[in-house]
Each structure stands twice: as structure tokens, then as C-alpha cells.
Specification:
- By secondary structure, the chain is of the alpha/beta class.
- The protein has two domains: 93 residues, Rossmann fold; 112 residues, UDP N-Acetylglucosamine Acyltransferase, domain 1 (3 Solenoid), CATH 2.160.10.
- It is globular and about 50 Å long.
- It starts with a strand and ends with a strand.
């Protein structure tokens, strides 16, 4: 059987992680795309196409092919970008699967949206719900009944205790802890190592132990 074919938007570190998952599952990355004219990649032998025009030209040749899988390897606080590329892939007629590392644990009662990345050592517990284009990064934990909006990124080693709600496009920084039943708004950045003990509104940066709002995002 021929390997599943993947394309990745993003040619940096997150692409390395996703390519390894693809390869472990018997797939093959056939092309990389990036907006940066200086983009390069450690994924040797895979051609990098620069810019949206290059993507459009390349994808037009394969438009509607159901055997092409597309993923956006864009980390950090860039959930809205991942979601935009998800829409682009859909318009091209490509498949947009979720990638789950073989060492991740995902409860059978959890619901994981389209084009999410669930990385090594991460845990998604019973009745948790993830919107599309989320990242549950290395050794991150999403406990029971948490609800994550589209484009959320739970960074490496971060922990969401039970029944936490996180709004769309929010980044929970590496090693942070969010206590049970906390609500965090949309387009929020929680700084690395923070402990969130109370609700956080939309469009702010919060940091510290306990986490305090330090900046508004315009």
C-alpha cells in the first residue's frame, strides 16, 4: 500500500514534530510551505515552497485529490493562523486529519476536533472537548470535562485541571497550571509557568503565581 501523502504549512520546529508522527504512521510528507522567504528546514529532501502564490500554483495541480492530507505546523499563540490555513486546505479539497502521537493518551469519551495535534506524552481525559486546530503539546494534560475552543494551544507540560474552559486562539504557556473550573477567555496568552487561580477575560496577557493580567491585547 502506498504511504499517505501529506503537505505541511510551516517549515520550522513544529513541522519536525509533526513529520515524525506522519512517518511513524506510515505516511510521507511530500511538500512544505512557508510565508518566510528565508525559510529553511531540517527536513532534508522535502521541497519548500514560499508564499501563498506558490501554494496556489502547487495545489491547483492536485485540486480535489482526496489522497492529499494537509496540516498547519504553526505553534505559539497563532491559533487564528492555523484556522485560516485549515480553511485554505478545505477550499483546495484536501483532507485535514488530526494527528495523535502513539504515546499520547486520548479518552474514548473525549471529542477532538479536526486538524488538531496531540503530541507525545500528552493526556486528554474523559469528556474533554477540543475544537478544531488545537495543539496539545508534549506532556500537556487536559483533564476531565475541559472545553477548549478552536485554535487553542496547550504548551509543553501545561496542566488544565478538571472542568476548565478555554476560549478560541488562546495559548496556555509551557508548565502552567490552571485550577479546576476556571474560565479563560479567547485570544489570551498565559505566560509560561503561571498558576491560574481565577477567571481571565478575553484578549489579555496574564502571568505569574497567581497569574495576574499584565497587558491588554488590542
Amino acid at each position: 500500500m502506498a504511504p499517505k501523502k501529506y503537505i505541511i504549512w510551516g517549515a520550522k520546529g513544529h513541522a519536525l514534530v509533526l513529520e515524525e508522527i506522519v512517518r511513524a504512521q506510515g505516511g510521507e510528507v511530500i511538500a512544505l510551505f512557508d510565508n518566510s522567504p528565508d525559510a529553511n528546514s531540517s527536513l532534508m529532501g522535502i521541497e519548500i515552497h514560499i508564499g501563498l502564490e506558490a501554494y496556489e500554483a502547487w495545489s491547483q495541480k492536485l485540486k480535489g485529490r482526496k489522497d492529499i492530507n494537509a496540516i498547519a505546523a504553526i505553534g505559539g499563540a497563532s491559533g487564528s493562523d492555523r484556522r485560516n490555513f485549515l480553511e485554505l486546505f478545505r477550499k483546495s479539497g484536501f483532507r485535514t486529519p488530526t494527528l495523535v502521537h502513539e504515546n499520547a493518551i486520548v479518552s474514548t469519551s473525549a471529542r477532538v476536533g479536526e486538524n488538531c495535534h496531540v503530541l507525545a506524552g500528552s493526556v486528554i481525559s474523559p469528556m474533554a472537548e477540543l475544537g478544531e486546530a488545537c495543539i496539545i503539546n508534549t506532556k500537556a494534560s487536559v483533564d476531565h470535562e475541559c472545553i477548549l475552543g478552536a485554535g487553542v494551544h496547550i504548551a509543553p507540560g501545561a496542566t488544565l485541571c478538571g472542568c476548565v474552559q478555554v476560549g478560541e486562539n488562546t495559548l496556555i504557556g509551557a508548565g502552567s497550571v490552571v485550577l479546576p473550573r476556571i474560565r479563560i477567555g479567547a485570544n489570551v496568552i498565559v505566560g509560561a509557568g503561571s498558576v491560574v487561580t481565577r477567571d481571565i477575560p478575553d484578549r489579555v496577557v496574564a502571568f505569574g503565581n497567581p497569574a495576574k493580567i499584565v497587558k491588554t491585547i488590542l
